[in-house]
Design brief:
Length: 397
């Protein structure tokens, strides 16, 4: 029976990892999949995580099952960073209105959010495009209709009109999926004023808000990057927040994420959580424990937390320097609007390159990037940025 299946193309982004590995040119540059790299081009385990993992080995007494919700200590330890601690807004749980569960990475959280939305009657999801390609794949796999709107303007700012009209035109049975910060793939985020407008529009609309927060702390800082999430949740009765620790704790292959739900009051949380538990049980039963437990060991210890905050700060400032270096080359490579990169955030930027130019960068210059023209800013460093700019000049000529 299985011979009825037609072959599927490999995921284009993940296929790049293998193509890059197979290239033996010494000066190759990997701007493909979204992993942070140091100035030396490495993706080391965070020192804070190494320390957390060591503490886990020393202290963990059992690996017995926890349940579909995973490690709630991990889930709760993240909440002050995401939702804030201000007593005026009800603290990290917004007066008991927010609860969460651990998921296998941010992907698991997005999948669970979409699945529970579907179970609640959602049939269409509005989303700015381009987006992380797996968003569309997840929605398609769940038979949810994706209604796209343009996320960014050609000048490299957010297309606020498009998101506001998508929200205003949405009907009961619709959800809207927004990136909380460090938009993947464009790096184009909403300003505070724009988030204020989005929150007000959502409050006036029947649409269910789903926020995907996969790069928290990699834009301007943990507090600053949480502005949109807090503003939106502050305006609504209910919302879903998918969270990933794969980038901001460097946990990638350990698959560390969480899904949070805001309900209109604490009593309304239980039936929603029971659905999330049932969906998780049917999908992966329980999330993998190790990564979430290591993150918990970091967040439960002041010294390890400070190590983590310092490492995050280093990542952020290094990526800012790369952005500034590229923006300063704007005049050298006209037509790519490199100047806009300085005002964008996170790991990614999109360059308006043609398929042929992207292929020439790979074939002639050993530079690997997504077929969409997305580059991973963190793949650039002091030792390869000049080569990258020279290659851009060569293919753009
Ligand atoms: C990316 O966009 O490169 C990352 O989020 C990795 C992935 O899973 O696609």
């Amino acid at each position: 029976m299985l011979d009825r299946l037609t072959a599927q193309a490999p995921d284009a982004l993940l296929a790049l990892i293998k193509m890059y590995a197979a290239d033996d040119r010494a000066d190759k540059i990997d701007l493909g999949v979204g992993v942070y790299r140091t100035n030396e081009g490495a993706t080391p385990v965070f020192k804070a995580i190494k320390a957390g993992e060591q503490a886990l080995i020393d202290e963990q007494q059992s690996k017995s099952y926890l349940g579909p919700e995973g490690d709630l200590g991990f889930v709760h330890a993240l909440m002050p960073y995401i939702f804030g601690s201000d007593p005026a807004t009800g603290g990290p749980t917004m007066d008991g209105r927010i609860e969460g569960m651990q998921t296998p990475g941010g992907t698991g959280a997005v999948r669970l959010a979409a699945a529970v939305a579907k179970a609640a009657g959602v049939t269409r999801i509005h989303m700015g495009t381009p987006s992380w390609p797996n968003h569309a794949q997840i929605l398609s796999d769940l038979d949810l209709e994706l209604v796209g709107f343009g996320h960014a303007t050609p000048e490299g700012a957010a297309n606020i009109k498009a998101v506001l009209s998508a929200i205003r035109d949405a009907r009961d049975g619709d959800a809207v999926l927004l990136h909380g910060c460090c938009h993947n793939p464009t790096g184009v985020d909403y300003t505070h004023e724009e988030w204020d407008q989005i929150a007000a529009a959502l409050a006036d609309s029947p649409v269910l808000a789903i926020l995907d927060v996969a790069y928290h702390g990699l834009g301007h800082g943990l507090e600053e990057d949480a502005y949109g999430v807090r503003r939106v949740l502050g305006a609504l009765d209910e919302a879903l927040v998918a969270y990933s620790c794969d980038k901001n704790f460097g946990m990638y292959r350990d698959r560390v994420g969480a899904l949070y739900v805001l309900a209109k009051d604490a009593g309304a949380l239980d039936p929603i959580l029971s659905n999330l538990n049932a969906l998780a049980r049917a999908s992966w039963s329980m999330p993998p424990d190790h990564g979430g437990a290591a993150v918990r060991m970091v967040l439960e210890d002041e010294g390890r937390t400070q190590m983590w905050l310092d490492e995050l700060e280093d990542m952020r400032s290094r990526m800012r320097r790369v952005r500034e270096r590229l923006a300063a080359a704007d005049n050298e490579v006209p037509g790519l609007n490199l100047a806009a990169l300085a005002d964008q955030n996170g790991l990614f930027a999109m360059l308006p390159l043609s398929k042929e130019q992207i292929a020439a960068l790979r074939d002639d210059h050993a530079i690997y990037m997504a077929g969409s023209g997305r580059i991973n800013i963190a793949g650039l460093h002091a030792g390869n940025t000049d080569k990258f700019i020279a290659a851009l000049k060569a293919v753009a000529a």
